[in-house]
Amino acid sequence: MKRRRLATFVIALCSLVGVAGVEAAPQAASGHSRRGIELLKQGKPGEAIGQLLKAVELDPGDTNARLNLGYAYDQAGRVDEAVVHYQKVVELDPRHPIAHNNLGVLYDKKGLYDEAIRAFDTVLQLDPANVKGTENLATAKKNQAIVQTRERQLAEALSEAKAHPASPIHAYKLARFYAFYGKRDQAIEWLEKALALGFNDLGYVKVDTALASLRDDPDYRWLVRGR
To answer: Of 200, 201, 190, 194, nearest to 158 (Cα)?
Structure first.
């Protein structure tokens, strides 16, 4: 089973109220923030990061700019940096539901399911009617259950293989689980053991859907070649 993907959010820059005597730094920060948002809309997160960094440097307390900076980092594939800025938003404004939601999404992406679930629980405490928070919480719990099932199956299969070190069937079963869950190196290792122990149903090996992820692997092709 595949893990489900969750949704992060970017927010538009809040409209500025015209007030006499506004300091230059916040005005400059808002300009960088606007440009950053436009670059995000254009699908240019790398360029947006530069603008949004300038915005938060000029106005460290601007939670909107920092939230959008976190989003830009996420879109650029720089998840750890995104987490840092979302966490900073939460420090500045503990009651910011979007920041908690986006943190939860990234925790889920990193496999930190307990943290993700806590983040989405916080979203719903702050906004009980938040539909996306409800959906994300349910999805995070499903993802956690999927991973727990995977780890349990792998642990059980590994335990059985070690308890029956001369069994090609147990070695092959473990190879299948590893391949199915995308653990290529371990799958190849245990498939090689199964074949060395005498697993000789090569016709099945070549069509076994659990091994589909290995078909183009040169080590896999070497193992089944000429058998």
So the answer is: 190
List phi, psi (to 5°) of 70. -60, -40
Nearest 5°: phi and psi at 92? -75, -35
Domains and CATH numbers, the chain: 24-143 (1.25.40.10), 164-224 (no CATH)
Q: Which of 136, 142, 144, 141 is nearest to 120 (CA)?
A: 136
In the chain, beta strands by DSSP E: none
pTM exceeds 0.85 for this model: no
Kindly give the interhelix angle for 113-126 and 131-163, rounded to the nearest 10 degrees.
160
Which amino acid, one-letter code, is at 153?
Q
Q: What average pLDDT does the structure give for the chain?
A: 88
Tokens 């916040």, located at residue: 26
Long-range contacts of 213-218 (CB under 8 A, 24+ apart): 213/179, 213/180, 213/182, 213/184, 213/187, 214/179, 214/184, 214/187, 214/188, 217/184, 217/188
- 93-111 as b/e, with b when 16 or more CB fall inside 10 Å? beebbbbbbbbbbbbbbee
Q: Are 25 and 58 in contact (CB under 8 A)?
A: yes
- At residue 7 the predicted structure's pLDDT band, cuts being 50, 70 and 90, is low
